[in-house]
Design brief:
By secondary structure, this protein is an all-alpha fold. It contains 7 helices and no strands. The chain has a domain of 93 residues.
Length: 161
């Protein structure tokens, strides 16, 4: 059923953007699906999409930081390995793999990945008490190797698939 355009004025949707974002998004999706381009809040929708893309890139970088930080601890303090480190590594590998599954994210990978190394090393230094010289100056892992690396030791019980 096509609703009259007067019920969805862009001004009303624009103010809804500031008050109730989920409702605003639903209205935008409806207007687009129904081809009511005059009812689309173009300015706020463009801003929302830009912010969403930037948020996704920040989240990918943060996941790289956490994954690299735990991989450093895993490799440079093997005597302190624990299940929580392992679970974090496995979780972050899964999450990063999910991002990499979106073809559009692959073009953004180099910047967040390279910028994740310094904070990952810093966190590892603080947590392990090791000096900066204990860790490589450059990231030794490429993205695909990091995400697919099997870190589960053979003496750990089998995990369900």
């Amino acid at each position: 059923m096509v609703k009259p355009a007067a019920a969805h004025q862009p001004e009303a949707l624009g103010s809804l953007y500031d008050i109730d974002e989920p409702a605003w998004l639903a209205g935008q999706a409806e207007a687009l699906r129904e081809g009511r381009m005059a009812d689309v809040d173009h300015v706020n929708l463009a801003e929302f999409l830009d912010e969403t893309a930037a948020r996704d890139r920040r989240e990918l970088r943060n996941r790289f930081v956490v994954l690299l930080h735990h991989m450093l601890k895993w490799h440079y303090q093997p005597e302190r390995r624990c299940r929580s480190w392992l679970v974090t590594i496995l979780r972050e590998q899964d999450e990063v793999s999910g991002f990499l599954g979106a073809e559009s994210m692959n073009r953004y990978v180099p910047m967040p990945y390279s910028s994740a190394w310094p904070p990952a090393v810093h966190r590892a230094m603080v947590e392990t008490g090791l000096s900066a010289t204990a860790f490589p100056r450059e990231n030794p892992w490429d993205v695909k190797a990091l995400v697919s690396m099997n870190v589960v030791p053979s003496n750990y019980p089998e995990f369900p698939p």
